[in-house]
Amino acid sequence: MAMLRDADFRKPDAPSPDTVLSVQDLSIDFNLRTHVLHAARNVSFDLHRGRTLCLVGESGSGKSVTARALLRIIDRNGAITSGRILLRGGKGSDIDIAKLDERSRTLLGIRGGRIGLIFQEPMSSLSPVHTIGSQIVEALRLHQAMDKRQARAATIELLRQVEIPNPETQIDRYTFEFSGGMRQRAMIAMALACNPDILIADEPTTALDVTTQAEILDLIKRLQASRGMAMLLITHDMGVVAEVADEVAVMRYGRIVEQGSVDEIFHDARHPYTQRLLASTVRLEQNPRALTRPAEPAHAEAKPVISVRDLSKFYGASATLFGNRGKGVRAVESVSLDLMAGENLGIVGESGSGKTTLGRLILRTVEPTSGTITYNDRNGHAIDVTALSKRELRDYHRDVRLVFQDPFASLNPRLTVKEVIGDPLFVAGRARGAALERRVGELMELVGLDPQSMERYPHAFSGGQRQRIGIARALALDPRVIIADEATAALDVSIRAQILDLLLDIQKQLGLSFIFISHDISVVRYFCDRVAVMHRGSVVETGSAEQICTAPTEPYTRALISAVPNPDPRNKRMLHRTRFTAEAAP
């Protein structure tokens, strides 16, 4: 049998009359200090009016650099080496964006005029020193030749179209005064300000929780339909692809290895890489612990490892006229839950629901306003964590460790891997010299890393490998409990599944218990035994992972689960999602 090449797999059709932009054999190189990086090689695809093309693939596959090349905003050390980017003209004349001078008026008119761009992280894309309205007004005056009064009126209308409440007052607010979802809506308004023919959305919902993600995707699709735009959506979330895509192009190592309709890609994928990507996504819809270890009711006499009772945290509480303290901002209120030995307890909810604050309270890196945290140590002694002194907390923190969300920001770039993993051992006086190096080697093997690389620095490792380093550091002191705060949020779906499997394997070997904080319901379903659902600082429902994900009882939980994208274009869950409409909390 002849060996198959990428070129042998499904290719795009010939350009149709409704083609707005055609990318033909595009190649992009970056001149690095030691070598030339081929970021994109012979990339070809078409964008059609009123339709969405999803460009998918893992980090480093070339998705974002390809999208940025369409607007010629790649970094200075990068260049288009070959290929064409044909923007179809209204009168049959095409513009090859690849050949335009970067400072030409034609290119400046295309940016924001005919092609709009939504960035991944609105907090770093919007100016923190200018109001939201002034930034949109600037775009309108640049491309539409409006005066200030006309541009302000148009901006208010744009904010209304993207469903920002009270646009007349919100127009004068700053970026930091908006929530994550509101910032993304403002970015969409800016991208659509000049009624572009094409909208490029680069991971527009990655940092958002599932309900906010569903609202943003629904908004983008409705605006696309009303304006007849072509859209290029860049994402690594195959569930989002299944919900919104018309066509899909799969990228790997700078090349498009397969493309076709969304149904063809999901139900008739031909390339092995596409098949592996989909298999990793489908795996997260299952719960391997439920299959291998049926849930059994806990014995009444069994003691939990950690027990939380009526735990609350209020910020900004102040003294009143009569000497007592007002509540202030409610972060966590009257939370009670137990973590049993060997159990994985998931904490889920929207951004701002109090998940991360609860984890920090349990660690006592944040001081509670009221309530108790009881830890039953290795000898069975009940310890009141809220009463521990700073010195006594050291012993507690050896048994209860934290895995951070961002594997890039949580590792000191000036320390070698040996120093990063060995630091807890050194500080605790557990090991030094050859003993420390030997223990670091054991920990690296435990998390699937080569001990020979312990003298390297974090920048030499991929995102998944860096998260393994963070896990090894958390395991250094032989803990009993690990609190994982969005520990897989920054990882690709295939790497995410690998890290979750790694944690489950380590749990079997070491008998760990996990508190797993996440807004990704599929990850929680895959990893956890029980789930506690948080809303506005309170736990509204607790149950087994399978029950919460398939048959929730509380209205808020039902709305949360219904907003989770389903990785099957033939069964789009978000089309039939329910919305939580409870009155605003006081």
Task: Explain the overall architecture.
The protein is of the alpha/beta class and 586 residues long. Helix content is 35%, strand content 23%. The strands form four sheets. The chain has a six-stranded mixed sheet, sandwiched between helices. It has a six-stranded mixed sheet with strand order 16-17-18-13-19-20, sandwiched between helices. β9 (247-252) and β10 (255-261) form a beta hairpin. The protein starts with 18 loop residues before the first strand and ends in a 24-residue tail after the last helix. Mean pLDDT is 87; it is low at 294-300.
Give me the CATH architecture of the largest domain, please. Answer: 3-Layer(aba) Sandwich
Number of strands: 20
- Can you say what the CATH homologous superfamily of the largest domain is? P-loop containing nucleotide triphosphate hydrolases
Q: What's the overall average pLDDT, rounded?
A: 87
Query: Biggest sheet, strands in spatial order?
Result: 6-7-8-3-9-10
Give the termini separation.
Answer: 69 Å
Instruction: Give the CATH class of the largest domain.
Output: Alpha Beta
CATH fold node name of the largest domain: Rossmann fold
**From the alpha-carbon coordinates, what is the Rg to the nearest angstrom?**
26 Å
The number of distinct structural domains comes to: 3
Strand content: 15-25%
What's the helix count? 21
Class per helix and strand makeup: alpha/beta
Major sheet, described briefly? 6 strands, mixed
What is the percent of helical residues? 25-40%
* Inertia-based shape: globular
Unreliable segments of 5+ consecutive residues: 294-300
